[in-house]
Automatic annotation (TrEMBL):
Enzyme class: oxidoreductase
Protein name in the entry: 2-dehydropantoate 2-reductase
Domain Ketopantoate reductase C-terminal: 171-291
Lineage of source species: Bacteria, Pseudomonadati, Pseudomonadota, Gammaproteobacteria, Oceanospirillales
GO cellular component, one term: cytoplasm
Length: 294
């Protein structure tokens, strides 16, 4: 694979995984979204620890911008990065929805939608450990429309033990599946201050079913197809991550702004656009909005 230059927006858990994946064949710099930004130095993988090779020193040129930050920062940070690196391709890996549509409208084919089920947790500010081993899916394009380095990254997926990148045609359906799961797990765990596994109780399951009823109506109205039954999908994540705190629960506990505007908020806006009422989603939106910092 030919050498290329990458910029990571959001050098946290997902950003550290991206760095580890691409650093063997890419120069990696980080978008300095605040002063005195420090970077993780190591990532633990099964059986080994990698030293992360990235820098906050601005690169003279960038081929790919990887957006791994919180959804509320994605649009503005990407616009700022593209103002400097106007020819770069952008891969969006943030949670939630909304920035994808806005950035695609503004920048067209420079924007590639993506989604990852991989994850990591911090051991310390300078050290992460990979805790989720899924796949990273990105929007499929005709080979002649993709840069050579992007094709090469996809081609080496079988050799990847970190992100396992792949290109698919129906990335929008994948993103809707992810937001469906997040809209069930994140607000409930944040509001009740419980780990994911505690959502398996009957009371929480009834609320999850009410949420899913509204989201599936939106999905049907958009003529998208899910890969499996929505409740089965949500409960599989609850089981697999039973001992985890959701990111939204952590944000509420630690007094940070949450991504509720890009999960429930996005779904509520889609409901209004499609003429579908979403009272349950609205109730959970208000509950979290009242608890988060402004």
């Amino acid at each position: 694979m030919s050498d290329f230059s990458s910029l990571i927006i959001g050098p946290g858990a997902i950003g550290s995984l991206v760095c580890a994946e691409i650093q063997p064949f890419s120069r990696v710099s980080v978008f300095a979204h605040r002063q005195n930004l420090t970077l993780a130095t190591h990532l633990d993988l099964p059986g080994k620890t990698l030293a992360l090779d990235w820098t906050v020193t601005p690169a003279p040129s960038v081929d790919v911008i990887w957006v791994c930050c919180k959804a509320m920062h994605a649009e503005q940070s990407t616009q700022q990065a593209l103002a400097r690196y106007s020819n770069a391709t952008v891969v969006l890996l943030h949670n939630g929805m909304g920035p994808q549509q806005a950035l695609s409208e503004a920048f067209g084919d420079q924007i590639i939608w993506g989604s990852t089920t991989c994850g990591a947790l911090p051991i310390s500010p300078q050290h992460y450990v990979q805790t989720s081993f899924g796949h990273t899916l990105m929007d499929q394009r005709a080979a002649h429309e993709r840069p050579d380095y992007f094709n090469a990254l996809i081609a080496r997926s079988d050799q990847s033990n970190i992100l396992k990148p792949a290109a698919i045609e129906s990335i929008e359906a994948v993103l809707w599946q992810k937001i469906l799961v997040n809209a069930c797990i994140n607000p409930l765990t944040a509001y009740h201050s419980v780990k994911n596994g505690q959502l398996s109780t009957n009371d929480h399951q009834r609320e999850i079913c009410a949420i899913l009823n509204e989201i599936t109506k939106l999905i049907q109205a958009k003529h998208l197809t899910l890969s499996e039954d929505p409740l089965t999908m949500v409960n599989q994540v609850i089981t697999n991550s039973a001992e985890n705190w959701s990111s939204m629960a952590r944000d509420v506990q630690e007094g940070r702004k949450t991504e509720i505007d890009f999960i429930n908020g996005f779904l509520i806006r889609e409901g209004a656009r499609l003429g579908i009422k979403t009272p349950v989603l609205e109730r959970w939106y208000k509950r979290i909005a009242q608890r988060q910092v402004s």
